[in-house]
Fold:
Amino acid sequence: MTPDADADGGAGAAGVGPPGRPRIFLVEDHAVFRAGVRAELGDAVLVVGEADEVEAAIELINERTPDVVLLDVHLPGGGGQAVLRGVLPHHPEVQFLALSVSDAPEDVIAVIRAGARGYITKTISGGELLQAVYRVAAGDAVFSPRLAGFVLDAFAQGTGPDTVTTGLDPELDQLSPREREVLRLIARGYTYKEVARDLTISAKTVESHVSSVLRKLQLSTRHELTRWATDRRLV
Amino acid sequence: MRGITDTTDPATRPAPAPPGPDASRVSSSGGLGNASWDSYGWRGHGHRHRHHPLRLRIRGPIKRSSASRVLGGVCGGLSECTGIDVTLVRIGFVLVGMMSGVLVLGYAIAWLVLPIDNETSNIFSRAVNDRRGIRLVIAFLPVIVAIQIVVSVLHIGYLGFIGWPVFLAVALGILIWRNASEHERVWISDDVVPIFSSGSGRHGRWTMILRLAVGLAMTTGGVLVLVLGHTTTAALRPVGGALLVVAAIVVVLGPWWLSLARDLMAERQARALAEERAQMAAHVHDSVLQTLALIQRSSDDPQNVLRLARAQERELRAWLFEGRPPGTISEDATMLGEGIGLLQRQVEANHGIAVHVVLVGECELSDALRALLDAAREATVNAAKWSGADQVSLYCEVEPDTVMLFVRDRGQGFDPDAVPTDRQGIAQSIRARMARFGGTVVIRSEPGAGAEVELSMPRRQLVR
Structure:
């Protein structure tokens, strides 16, 4: 792992911003999958380290402060959330992109609420994964179709009679019509670019809508959010 | 009495009108009725669009619109053909129609002589060529003659006056009904004459009993009036004579009527048979033909061929001997989510394509939603077979009134207009299936840009 660390220093000095090569850290307990991701991302990113369990991951990430951490949701020793809790208080600038095999709702809600900037499944193609990494590195949110569907479901139809909100900010508990439209298209499998074309807005606007939804998802106290995650067992 | 004739006359005059001026060339749409309707229509918009005269450009022949229709789709067709907003056309029609009844007549004629946009022939030309329907109408002639005889004997003059108009109206109604397309028939029976469908509703038995009771009461009342109104039996003698004439007509024309009734029955059976065959073709296409295509594709993998053949055999047996139709979502599923899960597993197992499912909301499965799932499965299988993509997205959202379902792939795409209309996959398995329950289908695709099939099914079936 030492050569990686050296390379990391060099790249960091050369230029950090998103246009350059983002510095990636892999947290994943399957060695085969780690190798696969490395091969898929190739030279487009700089992998500054890997870890296969929670404690090592927290230590190394805090030490190397990568741009983006690719975080497996199912990790021995506390799961992905434990890593988020161990890093974000010290290094809020590190962005997390959660990866999972299952897309199970309880996984989605847990890591997003713990602070991940995006959520994708491992079936994602190499090109899409790279795009997701760039997007998260730039501070934007990454929603898989399933995550978009989940948010639509949890924030369904404004406020129903059994909607209990205890938050101080009611704005956080509702999606705007535009956000709903954007999410619906993402849930239908559209890329951000296609969403932008379909709604005749700029890709940047799409990103800001998605980021705003992510914020609501993380801060809302809407009961449905937690209830959805425990009630539903999708496929 | 004159009052009655005066009001009924204009209403029935449309009857002889169509066979008059444009009986010979219907498609030319240049008849008398159309001319008045056109001029009224244009005048209506001329006021609103005087500053945009170039907006009025004719695109091809006028056809009634099936997508934007309130009544017959005439306004929608007019707006599609001229580019004027459909709401403006409608407002114009209503305003001018209130001022002059001629426009109403013009609208009715336009409805008859303009083909709807997914058909080539119009109702009128079909009615003219409908020999069986015309025979049926002619068969009613002796009946009306008999009624006229009875009526003139009894000196009920006003009945004689309205007899012919009523006959013409009924004759027209029969011809229109027989020659309207399937969709328009649904529209007529649902919105125009709800009584047409009263026998087929859920409460058919009770309405039938009610109808019988009312009919009996009216017959008894009529006989009582006849008998009590004429104190001496001598006055009833002409009635006896009239009845004899009627009986003679029945004896002379009875066999012909019977053969006509048999003909109509045979026609109805033939139609039912054709429908059955279409459904069977859809089933076979969904199951056997699909499997054969899969087997051809995996001919170098004997294991796979064997598995496919076995599965198909099992499905076919279930269909032929247990009456479970293939290509449908199993009856076991009761919720939409379950059904979609089954669909996903079936398609992934049989076609080797990943199906990414996103479901928002949940509801119970009805027959209509099962049809929606069957159509969705067909769309997914199409994507697996033709698109070349290795994954397909299926998004389903339950809204208060409808269930929307999108099937999207990023494959090679196709030109939806270039698909031959007789191709089973889209026509029968998707469009017809959805239409049977009032659902709609929109297909968006371009060569090279993937394809998306949008299915929309109303949750509450319109049962009146």
In short: The first strand of chain B starts at residue 354 and ends at 360. Residues 333-458 of chain B form a domain with the Heat Shock Protein 90 fold (CATH 3.30.565.10). The longest helix of chain B spans residues 237-297.
